[in-house]
Amino acid sequence: MGKKVLGIDVGASAVKGGIVDLGKGEMISERFKIKTASPPAPMKEVVDAFAKIVEHFDWKGEIGIGFPSLVKNHVIYTASNVDKAWIGQDIQKVFGGRVGLPVFAVNDADAAGLAERAFGGGQGKQGTVLLLTLGTGIGSALFRNGVLIPNTELGHLKFKGDIAEKYCSSRIKEIENLSMKKWGGRLNNYLKHLDRLFSPDLILIGGGISRKFDKFKDYLTVDVEVRPAAMKNIAGIVGAAMAVNV
Ligand code: BGC
Question: What is the pTM of this model?
Fold first, then answer.
């Protein structure tokens, strides 16, 4: 058994938590999820949901948080799919202060990447590994020989006249009612662009839509190995817990 930490994954439409064994990279409790108002949920609602999760587990130890923004030294710098009031907030003060416990935070995609690189689809992989989370936005986690380069925010790269997440996130697939073929083609264009920039050795695709990987993998002709992330919906929580060691 390794150290136990409460991992909290703040998403655009829900806050999820679970107790994580950092030695095994496993969730050792059930996953507790509280839905929040359609994005952007007011900041207070998110902090209330967080406090309810801490209370639900009767948690008294360290907490790791994955937050869907650029997070540097626990301070939030961007708010694309969350309440703008988050900009400039210190996560340790806002969340930690609310429950009186030590809190550590990283970007949500960096969290998922940390988990996948250590325990999931990218386990032990050397070279350049890129994880993308496709959901309301597009998050990214970039590793070189296992070392994370945080806050790459590759979903915000300028691409096709806007930013990439407005072109091929899974939310855009829904909004524009794109077929798998059409959306898969867009994702492929984006992956080709990322390949030219970073020459990754492996690209991992995470986020809910990665469960349907078999339905779009044939449209990904980019000359890089592309795999679905392996930890499904627990990567965000396990990786959030890993923030205590970042
Ligand atoms: C945010 C990222 C986040 C991603 C996935 C993007 O809009 O800018 O910080 O990782 O969505 O949630």
Answer: 0.97
